[in-house]
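Narrative summary of target 7.
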Amino acid sequence: MSWRVDDIPLPLRPLLFGFGSVAAAGLALVWGLLRLTIRIRNVGEVPADPRAVTIECAWHEALLPYFVARMPYRKPYVWMNHPAFYMKGIHVFLGWMGVGELVLGSSGHGGRAALTALGPKVQAGCSTFLNPDGPYGPAHVLRDGVLDLSIATGAPVLALRLECSNAIRIPTWDRKLVPLPFSRIDVHHAPLRVVTVENREQLRAAIASDLGEPASVRVG
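Modeled conformation, tokenized:
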């Protein structure tokens, strides 16, 4: 049996949607608790036009702080996400958070085709968000996807470095951060960078530097 959402037999789709809705509700409950209790501070060159199209990126370890600090979205977004059926809860949650469309695919699971499909949607006016070292690492190594998408669309890359004043780390490959209630998340905005064929390698190094070393955190 395939692990992909799109390949689940039609009679089982309602069960999959029910599972996704329950999982998404749990995520939303945690998100709401953190959103109500965590202080968020924006640092650096926040884009002057909040509606402008950008290709946001942050290391995979900072995915949960990103959810808390940046969502719900207030402009159109399209996301590329892992196609496995057990990710359905994330898919539903992202829809609740303002992601208007999902393109299913990731490294090793149709990721190149999904990235190609993402391009026209970004060109049509949707921003997006990518983890340039996901979904399996190695951690803090900038993959090609962010660079290729900027070259294909002309949209600028906005690298985000998220720091938590108090958090725990999950023992996964990326040592994912879980911010704790009543802490603070600092969102550091790097300068917008438009990648071209000519400046690709130069900006690869610059964007990796913008994303920074493993996130600063005081472990609670």
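The chain is about 35% helix and 20% strand.
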